[in-house]
Amino acid sequence: MFSNLTRKKCNDYDLTPEEEVGYDDMGPVLGVQNYGILVKKYKRKNRPAKWAKRFFVLKECFLIYYATSYKKVFEKTRRIDLHPKGIIPLIGCSIVSGGDVDKKNCLLIAHPQLPAAIIVAAADHATQEKWLKALRSATKISYKNTVVGETMIRELENRGVLLNEEKKTYEERLEAEAKARKEEHDRADELAKDKEELEAEREKLIRTTKKLKDDLQNVKK
């Protein structure tokens, strides 16, 4: 059981180990570290607590959850919907594993500024441990992760410059090809026009020749 971890004193929440977390363990700074179905506990005033399945996405330092139906959409698109059922900021939170009533593989998310601790349950121990590691990593902003993030930003900026240069080169090439095709089309039009004029001259010459022959025959008679 989680015992008295839901109290609001600051000392009660400082239970997340302060071990150094590597970037590879944390997952992509700008990506998704973990996702899956968990069961979330909802406390209702003067009524028994209720458990509901939700689809959770751990992105950077935020735990976002949706209706379970969104799981298929996310796995297909890999996009974060901007209208979730809830968002839990994890910076400074304590993440504790334990058990609750009728639920063995639970995780408790606690912070002094949260009105109450948040409890979710995994399907099995392996899933619980995977989420525990990912959530604890997401509660910290380390210097290493900051450097990695800045490096990624610089790389993206450099890629943007390269893409702009490639785009400019491609546009210039397209413009040159379009100009060449236009010139070729104009030449083809001129040749077609010249051909029509030559054909007209040929027909005229044939008619003139025929008339001369007819006139010559009439003179001989």
Automatic annotation (TrEMBL):
Domain (PH): give its ranges. Answer: 31-140
Q: Give the region (Disordered) as residue ranges.
A: 176-197
Q: Which InterPro entries match?
A: PH-like_dom_sf (IPR011993), PH_domain (IPR001849)
- Which Pfam families would you find in this protein's record? PH
The family database entries (SUPFAM superfamilies) matched by this protein are listed as: PH domain-like
- Which CDD domains has this protein been placed in? PH_PLEKHD1
Q: Which domain of life is it from?
A: Eukaryota
Annotated protein name in UniProt = PH domain-containing protein
